[in-house]
Amino acid sequence: MVVETDRDGNGRTRLTIRQVADLAGVSTATVSRVINGRADVSERARQAVMRVVREYGYTTNRTARGLSAGHTGLVGVTLPILHHSYFSVIIDGAAEALYEHDMRMVLCPTHHEHEREVTLLERLMQGTTDGALLILPEESGDELSTLTAHGYRFVIIDPLRPIGERVPMVSAAHSSGAGEAVEHLLALGHRRIGAITGPSGWIATEERLRGYRGALAAVGVIPDPSLEVESDFHAVGGQLAAQQLLDLPDPPTAIFAFNDMLAIGVMQVARARGLQVPGDLSVVGFDDTFEASIVTPTLTTVRQPLAEMGRMAVSQLVRLLAGQRIEALHVELGTSLVVRESTAPPRR
Fold it and tell me: pTM of the prediction?
């Protein structure tokens, strides 16, 4: 194994793995483990080796190494769509982590079509990739368990529906994040708090609904079914749901939308009706996507650690590919409330 460099543009020199180890101050075995994406190396040693790699323009013959080791160095990433900041942040975190392991991703958009997703996974399993990250997969728990039984390594990011205990996944703490959002509105003095949910049966919907209802119950507010409207996580769905809520005889003074796009739809309807946000209506979202910080007024929302979810999923997958044991197959990362301009006390 060599490191190639062309530092002055006049010729190419070659460093042996021993020279890379000497420059990094580690053993040749450590260099090999870092280059091959092994997890059994300290972060300090990994960073030292990667500094030398970057400085000397390290390249590997991935094709030859893959043929000899039975690996491609490629990881498939299935996701519904590309043009949404929710997915782009996850992908950015995953891509950064894969790069550190000298691996690359193959993006496979499914457009929410189950048959297309199944076909993509079949192709990924036919030796084209070493494993996969499945973002919001459409497959059922049984289908995912079958993938596991066939020995294909994958990690799910933010599953849509309940999955088997032995299927590895990374998600956010939906329930506690929703509870924190509603507690914020309650602390401001709101008691009529509407909820615009996602599709029923989805994990994110059910967990956020549980957090919403739990926060209300904690202060003695009985949930009102008329204040809960199911939607589809899109801005147009938020508009339709907001119209339904604001047409009630006793409309809410605040609305908790289960993602940022729904919340933006609510704000558009409020503006069209001449309502001021947050003067007449407070609005809270969920995700903290890019749009939340540029909409007017800026959106109070629950921040999901999206990039960290991507990085954590890669870490889990690398361990699976190395045949290492994972202590926690279901990893739940904490959320945080980001208070901006869209929430205020209700007008008396």
Answer: 0.78
156 and 76 in a common domain: yes
Query: Tokens 């003695």 identify what position?
Result: 220
Domain extent at residue 15: 2-60
- How many helical (H) and strand (E) elements, i.e. helices and strands, does the chain have? 12, 14
Separation in Å, CA 140 to CA 160, 170, 310:
9, 17, 21
Element (H, E) at 187: helix 174-188
* Distance of alpha carbon 313 from alpha carbon 214, whole angstroms: 29
pLDDT in tens, 309-328: 999 999 999 999 988 888 78
348 located within any domain: no
Nearest to 144 by CA among 111, 128, 121: 121
Determine the Cα–Cα distance for residues 312 and 341; give it in Å rounded to an integer: 31
In the numeric block, which tokens belong to residue 217? 């119950």
Per DSSP, the three-state class of 88 is: helix
Q: Say whether both 167 and 197 belong to one domain.
A: no
What is the rounded distance in angstroms from the CA atom of residue 246 to the CA atom of residue 255?
10
Two structure tokens written together for 303? 């921040």
